[in-house]
Structures are given as C-alpha cells and as structure tokens.
Amino acid sequence: MNAKFFAALLGSIALCGSVQAGTVLTAGSGWVNDTANSQNTPSANSTITLTIDHGQIDVFSLSDCCVPGDSYRVTVDGFASYTSTLGLLPTYWTPTGSGQDLDWANPALSHLQITFTDPNAAPLTLTLSIVDLASADGGPGYPAGFEYRLDPVPEPAAWALMLGGFGMAGGALRMRRRALAA
Q1: Mean pLDDT along residues 21-26
Q2: Distance from C-alpha of 1 to C-alpha of 120, rounded to nearest angstrom
C-alpha cells in the first residue's frame, strides 16, 4: 500500500476519534465561562462532567453574564432538566468582586442552582449539558455568554462545630464583661 493511502486512513481515524471531551468541573474551582452559539444546541463546553464524593453535598450554580432575560436549560445525565429563572439565589462561595460574582448578584440576569448529593458508597459521576433556550431580545443574540461553578456545601457536623465555636466565643465575652463590671 502506498503512503498516500496510509495518510488518508490515519487522517480519517483521527477525525472519527476526535470526540470533544467537554469540561471536567471540580468543586471549589471557581467560575467557568461558556457560550451558546445558537438556540437549543449544546454550549461550547458541553458535555460537562462532575463527580460528587460519597456523603458530600455540592451545588451547581449557573448565571447569565451579558443580556438580561436569556434563559438556559441544564440537562443532567440526559433526562433530568432544569431551567434558569430571574432573581437572586444563595451564594455558597466567598464573593471576590469579580465580574462573574457581580453577574450572580444581578437580579435582572437569569440564574439556576442544582444541589447534588451522593448517598452511595462510591463517588457519583454526572454529565451536564447546557443549552440557551431563548435570547432576551427575541432576536439572534448569539453567541450568548454565561458562567457556572460547582461548590461544596459544608456538612452538618461542620456547621454544628462552627456554631458551637461562636457560642463559646460569645459566652467568653459575656463572662469577661461580668468580671470587668465586678
């Protein structure tokens, strides 16, 4: 066989095997920017893969970034579907004042949060796909920009420990005031 045939064969194998891997999302890694290039088609970074550790609760947050009123749909493992809405949602990270944090705090932009928990003995791996459902101005409005992140939610034991610490600190301050007054 000649060299041109092998080059063509290798080229076609490379094209067939070059499936986009998508994005791996890690809890606590911060904002990831993404775009949708047309209505009802997966975003540039789709498919997004995330892993929830055993017993952990993680929150996926999505925020529109540019045009108020765009709406997005997130599909989990190909069957569960969630749609973004206008308004403000809780923050599970420490805001830094970045552009993405400002977008999250803007009630005119659409937002979405999904809480994932893993009750199984092994880590749970999920895949997400994101599409832009509608452009706010009713026109083309593409590419549409948005951002998302995954953040761990502290376990109840961590919350209890933190609240106990605050209570002890408050008790110590109260005892100190009584000692000073006496």
Answers
A1: 81
A2: 54
